[in-house]
Amino acid sequence: MKKPSLPIGLGTAAIGRPHYINIRQETSSNFSLDAFKRDGLAILDDAYQRGIRYFDTAPGYGLAEQLLIDWVIEKDDPDIEIATKWGYTYVADFSPNASQHEIKEHSLSKLNEQWEQSKTLLPFLSAYQIHSATSETGVLENKAVLNRLAELKKENGLDIGITTSGQNQIEVIKKALDVAIEGNALFDIFQVTYNIFDQSLAQTSKELSVQNKKIVIKEALANGKVFPNTKYPQHAIVYKKLQELAVKYKTGLDAIALRFCIDSIDPFKVLSGASNKSHLSDNLQATQFKLEGKDLSTLKDLAISPEQYWDERKQLTWN
């Protein structure tokens, strides 16, 4: 009998490129591309051994998508599901001094270009997503792009989706829900930023569930901001509550934050962005308990406005 799938998947941004928008708990001055590749493959193997079967990647994540292509062919397990995206090109070339890390482009030519590599993930590829769909790029009104995505959906049996970021992400989700090609809804899966700080997804999660859409949570640890940080004295009460719950459930702050996402939204998956085995092990402790109702309510009360959350996030740098 097939084992039930873990509610946690692995996001591969941090194993595909050495720089990431995050609050680092530790730093390293040395970088070797060969060692970085080996470490990335080791994390994929460790995640698999721990029961993870859902992996999220993108061409914009440096070498992550190619790592998964090589790894999944060798693993050859039909239970593995991979989601990838199109729309960002990685341009930093793994340089520690790069001034630009990625370029966003939601054109038909970029879709077709990136699909040529991403399609080699088949038959393990289950979801193909617009990477960071926004109103500014006009991608949700681009008929040529939408029709092409509908073709790929029909030809390959894929879930088509969007990922969202920014204080207007709920507006973008609602707009995507209205997109239909030949009378059929185009988008099946929505990868959304959601965490203890920005809980705006709760406004529309029920609507997504009613329409049988898959919800995937990203940035559940708020780019590391769930860990106590003196730079954010305005969040002292959040850190106090998280530490109290970590003691109560005998686990880490990260596990509490991930479990909050699981219990409050009941998503298809919550993504761990772990880049080493220790952090992944800590994250997966979230599968070992369930938050009591009163504790879930306490965490829901800690939400801040999307405007404040995204203003603070914009201040983070690539490191």
Q: Strands of the largest sheet, in order across it? A: 1-2-3-6-7-10-11-12
Main beta sheet: strand number and arrangement?
8 strands, parallel, barrel
Q: In the CATH hierarchy, what is the class?
A: Alpha Beta
Q: State the domain count.
A: 1
Shape, per Cα inertia axes: globular
Distance between the termini: 44 Å
Element string (H = helix, E = strand) = EHHEHEEEHEHEHEEEHEHHEHHH
Alpha carbon gyration radius: 19 Å
Strand content: 15-25%
Q: What would the CATH topology be? A: TIM Barrel
Helical residue percent?
Answer: 25-40%
Report what the structure shows.
The strands form 3 sheets. An 8-stranded parallel beta barrel has the order 1-2-3-6-7-10-11-12, surrounded by 4 helices. The protein has one domain (8-314): TIM Barrel (Alpha-Beta Barrel). The longest helix is centred in the N-terminal third of the chain and has 17 residues, at 33-49. The protein is α/β, with parallel strands linked by helices and 319 residues long. 41% of the residues are buried. It has helices at residues 13-16, 33-49, 64-75, 108-118, 143-156, 169-177, 205-210, 236-249, 253-265, 277-283, 293-300, 306-314, and strands spanning 8-11, 54-56, 81-86, 88-90, 102-104, 125-130, 159-164, 180-181, 184-185, 189-193, 214-218, 269-272. It starts with 7 loop residues before the first strand and ends in a 5-residue tail after the last helix. Strand 6, helix 5 (143-156) and strand 7 (159-164) form a beta-alpha-beta unit.
